[in-house]
Amino acid sequence: MKRWQWLSLFAALALFVAACGSGTVDTTTDGSATTGTGAATTDATTGTTADGTATTQPTGTGEAGSGGEFIAFQWQGPSQANAYLSTGTKDLLAGSLVLEPLAEFDPAGQLVPALAAELPTQENGGIAADFSSITWTLQEGLLWSDGTPVTADDVVFSWEYCTNPETGCVADFATVESVVADDDLNVTITFTEPQPYPFTHFVTYTYPILQRAQFTDCAGAGADACTEQNFAPIGTGPYMVTDLRPEDIVTYEINPNYRGIAEGKPFFGSITIEGGGDAEAVARSVLEIGEGDYAWNLQVAPEILEPMEGAGNGVVLAAFASNVEHLNFNQTDPAEDADRSDFAGGANPHPVFFDNPDLIRALSMAINREELVAVGYGAGGTPTCNIWPSEPAISTNMDACLTQDIEGANALLDEIGAVDSDGDGVREWEGIPLEFDFVTSTNAVRQSNQDLIADYWEQIGVVANMRNEDAGLFFDGTNASDASIWKFFADIQMFTNGSTGPDPQGYMVQYITSQIPESTNAYAGGNIPRYASEEYDALWAQLSGMSLDDPARNEVVIQLNDLIVGSGAIVPLVYRASVSAFANDIQGVGDLNAWDSEYWNIEEWTRG
Amino acid sequence: MAQYVIRRILFAIPTLVVISLIIFAILDLAPGDPTSQLPLTLPAEVREQIRESLGFNDPFIIQWLKWMQLMFINEPLHIIDSIFNTCIGDCESRARIISWSSRAPAVDIIFQRLPQTLWVLGASFVLGILIAIPVGIISAYKQYSAFDNIGTFVTMIGYSAPTFFTGILAIIVFSVWLGWFPSFYDSTLVVNSWDTFLAHVKQMAMPVAVLTLFNTAALSRFTRASVLDNLNEDYVRTARSKGLGETMVVTTHVMRNSLIPVVTLIALQIPGIFAGAIITEQIFRINGLGALLITAIGQADVPMVQTLTFMFAFLIVVFNLIADVTYGILDPRIRYD
Amino acid sequence: MATTQERVEEQVDLQPARPGEKHRSLSEDVWRQFKRHKGAMIGLVLLAIVVLASVIGPFVYPLDPYDIDTSLANMNPTWTHPMGTDNLGRDVMARVLIGGRISLAVGFAAMLFGLFLGTAVGVISGFFKKFDGPLMRVTDLFLALPILPLLLVVIMLFRESLKDAFGENVGIFILVVFIIGVTSWMQTARVVRGEVLAIKEEEFVLAAHSIGTRKRNVVMRHILPNVLSPVMVSAALGVASAVLTESALSFLGLGFPADFPTWGRLLFDAKGYLQLNPMRAIWPGVMICLAVMSVNFIGDGIRDALDPKARSK
C-alpha cells in the first residue's frame, strides 16, 4: 500500500517533468529551426573560406579581434537587425555593427564618409549645381562579409527594396526620384525637387546599404519569409551576427573581410548585446556591479544614477542632439479654425493663447528650468529657451527665460490686464479664468516636471489641470485615440521633439502654416501648436533655397527659432541628451554620438 | 475512464476556439498600432504603407480566420516537419504567424524563450514541492507547536510578500552588496563544463529562491490543511486503536489520503506560475515568455500577443485536464459519469 | 494561488456547518474557536490597525501627501518625516496612509464584487438544475483564460475610455476593481455550488420545500446562511489576492497613474531608490505584506473555526 502511495506521487511528478520534458523536446525542435539561421551564417563563413580571403586574421597584425568579448546592455533588446524594418533605435543599433551607410555623423554632427570615398560637394561635382541630384563614389576594394565586392548596384537595390510598397519599409524616400548606378563605384540619387541639403538618403544608421545578392527575394511580399536575412544581414561593418534572439540577445563575431582588419581593427573579437530589464537595472549592472561594458539609454533619475556612478566601475556619458522637451500652447484661433481643434463641445481650445505672446511669456518666466533638470534629468539635460538648440545656429535672444522670475511674471500679467478680479486666487483674462488642461505622457520624469510646473504657475495665479496619457496613445501616429499629440485636444502639451539630423532645415519646416494638423488633413503635419505666421512661412521659404555654405543660413535659423518661441506657440524647457554608461576600462569611445549610432566607431574601442 | 478523458479533450477544443476568439476580440479593440514606436518625423503615407503590409487593416474576422489557419494547421505542420525532417505540402513557402516587431515567426521566438522560463519555473517548483510537503505534514501533525507556528508564520510571509518586493531586495543584497549572483540571466549560456554549470546555478539562484519561497508557502499551507483534515478522520483513530505505530499511521494512512488533493493542486498551480513568471522575469531580467509578453504588449505586436496569450490558455487547459485525470486515477471514489 | 487552493478546498470543506447542537449558538461557538487561533487574532488586530490607519490616518496626520518641495527630496526618516520623503520631497508616511485607503478599497471592493458574482453563479447553478450545465461551462471557460496576460491587455485597452467617462482616478478604480472581480469569482462559484448541492438534499431544506416555501425564500433563508463558511474564507483570500494583484499591476506600470498613490504604485516608484532611501520602498512593501498576511491569518482562523471537526476538539 505504501508503495502504491509513493508511486502515485511519483506518477504525478513524472507528469510534471514530462510536461517540462515535452517542452524541452519542442525547444530542441525549434532549436533546429533556428539552427537553420545559424547554418546559413555558417554557410556564409564557409563561403568566405572557400573564397580564400582571410579565414580568421591576416598574419602580421594579429591584433584585430584580440580583445575578447564586449558586453553591451540594451534594455530594449533588438527585435531584428534590418534598419529598414526597424521598430526603434534598438534595432537600428543592432544593425549598425553590421550594416553601414555611405556616410555617417560624428558626435559633433559633422558628416564623415563611411562606405563613400569622400563627401560629395558642389566643388568636386558630387552635388548638382541646382541641387537636383547627388553622386556618391564608393571606396575601392570594399568587400561584403561573405567576400563579394560591394558595388553601386547594392545601393540601387537598397532603394528598390525600401520603395517596394509591400516591404513595409520605415525609411522615407519620398523626395527621391531615382537611384542609378553610373558604374561599379558611382551612384547618383536624383531628387523630385531640388534639395539644398542632400545628405539624407544612405546617410546614418537609418539608411544602410543592403546586399542585393542576399536580399533580392526579400523585397516586397517576400519580406515576411526573410527572417534569416533580417536577423543576420550580410554587411560591411566590423562585425557579423552569429545569433539573434528577438528582444533577448544578439551575439556578433568579427567580420573577416572588414576593411580595418589590417590595421588591427576592431579590437574586440565578439560582441554580445543583452536585452531585458529596465534602464535602472542595466545602469546598475555596468556602474555598480561591473558585469558589463556598456549600458544604453539610461533615462534614470539623476539622484539614482549619480551614486551608481560613484561606485567607480564606470562613467556616464551624455550626448546632445536636438531633442528639446517643450510645452506646446494650442494656438488655434477660436474664431476661425474650428477644424483644427474641434473638441469638448466648443469649450476648448482655450481662447486666451491665440496671439497672446505676453501671457505665455509670463508663464514661461515663472518656470524654474534648473529645477526641472535637477529633478528629472541630471546629466541628461540642460535648461534651454530655444526650440533649435544645437550648433552652429544657437540663438541667445531668448535666454532671459533661463532665470526664474515669479515677480516679473506676476508684474507682466498685471500689466496686460490678467488680474484676479473675483478674488478666487485665479487670474482672469478678459473675464476668462486662467485655468488650463495640461497633458503629457505617462512617465515618472514627465509627471514630476508637470507637478513642478503646475506648482510654479499656482504662484502666479494660474491653474493647470494635470493629465497624463499613455505614451502608446499619446504618440500614436494613426490618431486613433483622441489623446494623440497631433489632435491636441487640450490647451497645453509637454513632450520632446527633435531633428533626425544635424541640419535644422528639415526640422524647422514643421512649423510652417501648411503643416498644421487638422481634421481636414487627417491630422497629418508637424505643426502641432497650430502656429500660423506668414512671416515664419516666408523666412522658411528663404532658408530652403539657401546653399549649405551660405554664411547667412545660420542667421535665418536663429530668426526662425526666435519667431516661434517669441510668439508663445512653444515654450522650450530642457535640452535633452541621450545618456549611456561605459565601464572604466573601455577606451577609444570619444564623445558619445547622438546624431548616429552610438556604436558608430566601435572598431576603435579597446579595453585598457 | 478513457471515455471521460476523451470527452474532456473534446470539450477542450471548443474552449480553446472560444478563448482564441475572445483574445482576438479584445485585441481588435486595441487602439495600439505597430507604427506608434516609429519616429514622429515619419510621413503618414509611409505609416499607412507599413500598416497595410502587416495586414493591420484587414477586418477582424478575416484576421482571426487567417490566424486560426496558421495556428492550427500551418504551425503544427511546421513542428512536425522540423522534428522528422519531412516536408508536408508546400513546406518551403508555408505561411506562418509573423511577429510585427521582429518579422520572424512568433512560434519560433516562443520556443526560443521557453527553456529559460522552464528552467527557472521548473526548478523553483520542484524545490517548492520538496520543501513544502514535509513542512506541511509536520506542521499539521504537531498543530499549534512551535514548529507549526514558526512554519505558518514563515510561509505566511512568503505568501504575503509580493515577489517584486522580495526580488528587488534580493538583487540589492546579493548582487549589489555581496556580488554573489549576476543580476541578469544569460540565455545563451551552454552548460558544458563545471564552470558553466556553476554560472548557470548562480544566475538561477535568486529568481529560483524568490519563486520557491512563494510556491512553498502556498503548497505547504495547503498540505497542512489537508493533513489536518485527515488526522481527525475515523480511520486514523481505527488505525491507532488497532495498535499501529505513529509513523506508520502518518506515512501510510494519513499521507496517502491527504496528498491526493495536494497532487491535484500541484497540477493546477503550473499554469499559475507561468503567469507569476511575468513579474519575476521582469525583475531578474530573464528573457522568458513573461518578458516576451510584456515587450510584445509594449510594442503593440498583436500577432505575438495573440499567440502568446493563446499558448498560456492552452497550457491552462492542458494542466486542468491533467489535474482532473490524476485526481480520478488517485482517488477511486471519484466517478466519471 | 490562493484561488487554486480553494478549488481543491471543496474536498476539505464539503461538510456544511451543522446547526448548533447544545445551548451554544453557532456564532458563539465559532467565535470561541476563532479566539483560540492565535494567528487569526493577531491578524484581526493587525488588520484593524492597518484599516484604521488608512481610514483615519490621513485626517489626523498633518502633512499633505501631494505637497511638493524639492528642497526636501529623498530624505531619510526624521521626526517631521517619520518615513522620509520621496524624490519630489513629498512625505512618504502621508502617502503610505492615503495609499492604504486606495489599496484596501480596491481589495475590499474587488472581493465584494467577485464574491457577489461567485455566490450568485454558485447558488444558481447548484439550486436550479437547468442552469447548472451552462454556468459551469462558463466557469470552466473563465478558469481557462490566462488571467494576468489578459488583464494587462485589457487595462491597456480600456483605461482611456474609462478615464474619459469617469475621470482619471475613478475610471481606473472601476477598471481595476472590475477586472480583478471578474477574474476571481470562479473559485467561489465552484465551492458554493458544491455546498449548495449538498445542502439542497438536507432534511431542513426538504422540509422547507414541503411546507410550500417559495424557492426564492428557500435560497435566501435556508441555503445562503449555510454556505456562509466557504464564502467567508473566499472573502478573506479574495481581499488578499486583490491587494496583491493591484500592486502587481501597479508594479508593471499598468495600475493607477503616477500621481495617485497606492501601495503598489509607491513601491514601484520607490524601487529605483532602494539604496538611496530604502525606507521609501520598505514601508509600502511592509504594508502590503501586513495587510495580506493579516487577512490570510483571519481566513485560516475562520476556516478552522467553522470546521465542525476542529470545533468539537
Unreliable stretches of chain B, pLDDT < 50, 5 or more residues? none
Whole-number tally of structural domains of chain B: 2
Query: What CATH architecture of the largest domain in chain A do you see?
Result: Roll
User: What's the average pLDDT of chain A?
Assistant: 83
Task: Name some characteristics of this structure.
heterotrimer; A: about 600 residues; alpha+beta; D-Maltodextrin-Binding Protein, domain 2; Dipeptide-binding Protein, domain 1; eleven-stranded mixed β-sheet; three-stranded antiparallel β-sheet; 15 helices; globular; disordered N terminus; B: mainly alpha; MetI-like fold; 2 domains; 11 helices; about 0% strand
Produce the secondary structure layout.
The complex is a heterotrimer of chains A (608), B (337) and C (313).
Chain A: H1 2-51, E1 69-74, H2 89-96, E2 103-105, E3 111-113, E4 133-137, H3 152-163, E5 176-181, E6 186-191, H4 212-215, H5 227-231, E7 239-245, E8 249-254, E9 270-275, H6 279-289, E10 294-295, H7 302-310, E11 314-329, H8 357-365, H9 369-376, E12 381-383, H10 406-415, E13 428-429, E14 432-433, E15 435-441, H11 444-458, E16 463-469, H12 471-474, E17 492-497, H13 505-508, H14 534-544, H15 553-567, E18 570-583, E19 586-587, E20 606-607
Parallel strand pairs in A: 1-9, 1-10, 15-16, 15-17
Antiparallel strand pairs in A: 2-3, 4-6, 5-6, 7-8, 8-9, 10-18, 11-17, 11-18, 12-18, 13-14, 19-20
Helix pairs in contact in A: 6-7, 8-10, 9-11, 14-15
Chain B: H1 2-28, H2 44-53, H3 60-84, H4 106-141, H5 146-160, H6 163-177, H7 194-231, H8 234-241, H9 246-284, H10 289-298, H11 302-330
Helix pairs in contact in B: 1-11, 4-5, 4-7, 4-9, 5-7, 6-7, 6-9, 7-9, 8-9, 9-10, 9-11, 10-11
Chain C: H1 2-13, H2 26-36, H3 38-60, H4 92-127, H5 129-144, H6 147-166, H7 168-182, H8 186-200, H9 203-210, H10 215-226, H11 228-251, H12 263-270, H13 278-306, H14 308-311
Helix pairs in contact in C: 1-8, 1-11, 2-13, 3-4, 3-13, 4-5, 4-7, 4-8, 4-11, 4-13, 5-8, 6-7, 9-10, 11-12, 11-13, 12-13
